């Protein structure tokens, strides 16, 4: 999955695969997590968020199943 760099102090890059509803988040630490079954509306909210890290913390982390990739 191709991730795009974002301007955030806690998130380095984001990628989304709509066919599989998978969201990849690379955190500033370098760790990459793939969140599963994430609806497109959540990703749209993420794109519009004033704080990407805050949005991930409130609406993605501990809400969707995930796997750590690296």
TrEMBL record:
InterPro entries: KTSC_dom
Provenance organism: Pseudonocardia humida
Top-rank taxon: Bacteria
Pfam name, any one: KTSC
KTSC domain segment(s): 7-64
Name of protein: KTSC domain-containing protein
């Amino acid at each position: 999955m191709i991730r795009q760099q974002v301007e955030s102090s806690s998130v380095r890059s984001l990628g989304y695969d709509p066919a599989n509803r998978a969201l990849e988040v690379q955190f500033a630490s370098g760790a990459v997590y793939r969140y599963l079954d994430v609806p497109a509306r959540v990703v749209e909210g993420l794109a519009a968020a004033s704080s990407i890290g805050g949005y991930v913390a409130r609406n993605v982390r501990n809400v969707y199943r995930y796997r750590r990739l690296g």
